[in-house]
Structures are given as structure tokens and as C-alpha cells.
Amino acid sequence: MTDLQAIVEDIHAALLPRRGEGRVADYIPQLAHVDARRFGIAVVTVDGAVHLAGDAEEPFSIQSISKVFTLTLALGKHGEALWKRVGREPSGLAFDSIVQLEREEGLPRNPFINAGAIAVTDLVLAGHTPKEAIGEIVRFVRYLADEDDIIVDQAVARSEQATGFRNFALANFMRAFGRLDHPAELVLGVYFHQCALAMSCRQLARAGLFLAANGRNPLTGHRVVSHLRARRINALMLTCGHYDGSGDFAYRVGLPAKSGVGGGILAVAPGKASIAVWSPGLNENGNSLLGSLALEMLAARTGWSVFGA
Ligand code: DON
Fold it and tell me: Angle at Cα 144 formed by Cα 138 and Cα 150, nearest 5°?
């Protein structure tokens, strides 16, 4: 057993009695059915070692973690011109907030709040039907993880399609300001499907590994993005990846990371490893409560914080 395996198992064991803490997201009805006591950790190092604990092989709804993958895809298609459509500043507000959008004329603060991710999805949709765009996103995530069995959970996608009223409000608002090229229902059709991707911690950690390894996936040898782009995506994850909890997460953990309301968090330790945790109970900012604690413990034990050991 390597030290890292022992650390991962220790953290899992230490937090196991706290399973079920936090609130499972229920504004997407299908997510409310998830067992709150699930808890998994996966660490994949840049040299390919895999360390797992708990429910690390069980697929869950990645939700907003998908925003990292669609941002990467959209940057590949549109380059730096993407930044005409979305900003790069933390919002200091909830992920689904609408107030800032009116004051800032429909230009979302960053690509990780819902409004910003909807703008990014609008760019991915360019030149495609929604079905083709969804196919492209799924293929891209499979390519990143080098796993062919990653799928969209259609029940989750349908559930959000039927109840995503705030997202419809955000998208229609942006459309009213001329900030979306496609009708709100088409963009959201794609957005809800990307959010409904089901992946395990192990698959997620593999998919994020290019961000820990200067843009190149060390498992496949594929150069996904340039060194500079990987660094910049990490910077956005650090500053905006946890919404109005981003400052606190940087303070406690110190790693670029992106959360999802399914209870997953993908974190990047540059030059070291890609980490995925999953525990469905959320804190007041909509980020995994136990997942954040697990990452705080991991950063402390490994000295991996980007701010110093
Ligand atoms: O758009 C939504 O509300 C969800 N599909 C995703 C939100 C989310 O994951 C926020 N993250 N913690």
C-alpha cells in the first residue's frame, strides 16, 4: 500500500460516520432519490496510479462539474473569442442567481455560474442540432476519461427539463439582451443533458487529469489543451468553481476545483493528481459538505495546496 492509498483510506474512514450530513439537492426531483449516505474518493496521479475509497466506482450525476468540460470544448472551437460572451470574475452570488445579470446586461460573470455555462453551451451548439451537440459533449468526455461507457442519465435530464424554471429565466433573460444565438429551449436542452452526465469518481478523476498535467492526458498521451490553457482553466476553477463559496474553498483547500449539486467535486493538484469526491449532502452554497471536508483533509495531508504546503 502506498502512502497515498493509506491517506485516501484514512480520510474515507474518518468521515464515514458523518455520511448523510448536509442537504441533498431536491430542486431537480430526480436527484432527491439519491442515497445521501454514498461517499466515494478517487485520486489519479499524473504518473497513472489510481487510489480509490468507498463508492468511487458508482456513477452519479456530475451536474455543474460538466461546465469544466464544455468550457474546454468551447475554448477549442472558439478560442479566446469566447470571452466576449462570458466574463472571468467570481460572482459572489449563488450559482443560479439572476440579479447580477440584469445589472450587467445579460453578460454572465464567469463560465461556471449557470448563466455563464448556458452562454458556453450556446457556443458549443453553433452549427449543430441539439442532438449533435449533446453527442459531441458525450464523445469529448469519453475521450478525456478514455472510457466508452459514460452516458447521460436521461431520467435526470428529463427531470431538469421539466422543472428548470430558473434556468429558463436566465436563458430567456440573456436572449432578451441578445447574448444567446439560439432559442433558450434549444440551448437548455443541451445544457440539461450535459449536467445529467453520469460518471463515477474514478472516471471523473481520469477526465480531469489533463488539467493536472499541463494540458496533456498522461494516460493516453493526448494533448487536450495547451499548457497555458490548462493553467487558465485551473485559475477559473480556483476563483469561480464553488460560486459564493469559492473564497472559503480556496482558504480551506487551496486547489482549483469544480462542484456539482449531485454532490461531486473535481479538484486539480497541478503537477500531482486529479481528485474526485462524491457525497450528495450539500452545504449552504450547494457544494458537497463531506466532499469539501475530504479535500481539505487531503490537501492538508499531502501538502498539495497551490498556496504552499
Ligand atoms: O442548472 C442547474 O441548476 C444544475 N443542472 C446544475 C447546478 C449545479 O450543479 C450547481 N453546483 N453546485
Answer: 40
